[in-house]
Amino acid sequence: LNTAYTTISEPVNRRQYDLFGASVNGGDDTFADAVQKMFDEFLDGQYDTLLGLVDQISSMNPDLPITKEGTRVVLQSMREICLWGGNLWGAAKFEVIALYEIHVDLQALPFFDFRGRLMKSAALSKGLLSLVAKMMPSVAARAMEGSAVHIRRIDMFVFNTVI
User: Does residue 151 register a pLDDT over 70?
Assistant: First the structure.
């Protein structure tokens, strides 16, 4: 009870508690743990911690035209881009690893091994084409969603412009 009173009564501790949770005074959480927690919440679509952080920044800098709704739109768009990038990586990671292995093999070949270099170069070209073919459905789907609309929404809320 004493810890709760101390945390609530001191503005700095209360602000830290609001932003990072119970481990304000000598907790086991490190800065890396707090950042990881915020990132996990972000990917889960929970923006409360980040919005609290933006509120603190906004209260310290009243000249910055940052609104909660604008911040939420930016965070949602950033989350969509991160998830899309994760999907692309999931589709392409094995091809990228295979391309790297072919590249290492190509570098290990003697300079005058023309046949070996030609074979590895052909495999590298085939791998690049395979990578593009794997990524195209994700890229096409993202393009169909209308990325420009997301960018316009971000501009509208962050810079308070009317579209």
Answer: no
